[in-house]
Amino acid sequence: MKATILKLLTILLLLAGAMTGCNRETVMPELERPTRTDTDEDLLKDSVYVYTYLFYLWQDDLPDWFSDIRRYTMGYNSADAVLEALKGYAKDPDGNPYDRFSFLDRTGTINAEIQQGLAGSFGLDVRYDNDTDLYVKKVDLGSPAYTQGIRRGWQILEINGNNNLSLASMEQDNFTFLFNALDAGNISLRLRKPDGEEASLNLSRGNYQIQPILANQVYTIGSKKVGYFAFDSFVSTLSGNNNPTYVKSQLDQLIAYFENEGVQELIVDLRYNGGGAVITAEYLSDMLAPASVGNGLMYTSRINDLLQDDEDWAQLFAPVNFNKTNILDLSRIYFLVTEGTASASELLINNLQPHMDVKLIGEHATYGKPVGFFALDLSSVDLYAVSFQSFNSVGYGDYFSGMPVDKLVFDDLTKDFGDAEESMVAEALYYAKNNNFSPEAVSLQANSSAGNTSRIAPRLNRTLDRHGNKGMYNFGKNLRMPKQMRR
Length: 487
Description:
Strand content: 15-25%
CATH topology of the largest domain: 2-enoyl-CoA Hydratase, Chain A, domain 1
Helix content: 25-40%
Largest sheet: 6 strands, mixed
Number of helices: 17
Mean pLDDT: 88
CATH architecture of the largest domain: Alpha-Beta Complex
Strand order of the largest sheet: 10-11-12-16-17-22
Distance between the termini: 18 Å
Number of strands: 23
Shape: globular
């Protein structure tokens, strides 16, 4: 290990300036990656290897390229390719790579979205209802799509003149047409509204502030009050300067509303939530946990041995305890999930499971990402290499295959978030009323066309649900080079 540290130190000195810090000025996501010279890219390739090795959770599995690092990295045409190769070394008992998560962010998009709550897109996401019909599954409040009136449940008939949007057609090029269209600067859409009226719209990519709470309400089920909220992204509750953000204020108001209404059980809709800031998952864990948790253990983290041996880093990733201060005292919580439910969403679920009655309702096990990152700024390119794994208070954290659902129920794209007749919400309300899940025939009952193909829904939407970044980001740490690396 000592020899490795000396090699690392030598290369870090040669790469001085590559890691310039872990905070970025407020920016909106850019449409195009900045141009880099061949020399810049060669340096970045070297930096990706060195800093991945230094901070990687699975450090012991990485190859030793220190003897002639440039000879190894020159075999790859980009820094992204270097990172992709490194991700293949750590494998589970079945021979599958653990790491399907690490990535490079060349535009600062993650920092803008998760740390600052800023987005630059059309503001809509899509999903298949059956083998042929593509629907709008979600529209961000205040986005270009929202301001033009598009809502969840509208069927997409045509994209940029292409009306062959069947699953088979999109699978032919691994959804490249669809993803490129949704990530472009402009898009032309023809849609059908729920009432049958058609609309043709042209959208331009635009900037807006993310509003992660998509909907909320309280239902009266007999003598019981059941709350509901749809949470779309774990935008940070603290700014880079550790000041409360608008998201913290919105969550405080939401929980106060549930407290005033006397909510006893809660439905948390995370069906499309791919994660976000760890600090927000911790904050929600505190607010939703029962009073009995007090100041007990919430979760622990594992980092690599090099970091763990550094007292500063060991302290940064010390065990996290609950800090329950609000009066909401739930007896049960229902999480609505899909395969797109990931990272910080799973952290929240895992934190609460040892302490209360938690039910998972959805069409598939969750994504399976018990690991996370912090941003390493390599000459204005952010490296997110998996650096920590989280374990709840009873030591569970190996859910790489996802968290299984307690009740199989499929997403009903024709109903809005919080609609008591939407299949997932209806199942939670059924349990709240009867203290057990509904018979299978009821949970799969067709209120719409979704019911006719619901049994194959996971296959329909697996690629769409897995698309995009699934992150658990720790922006709250005052990162510094481990002492053994400093001079």
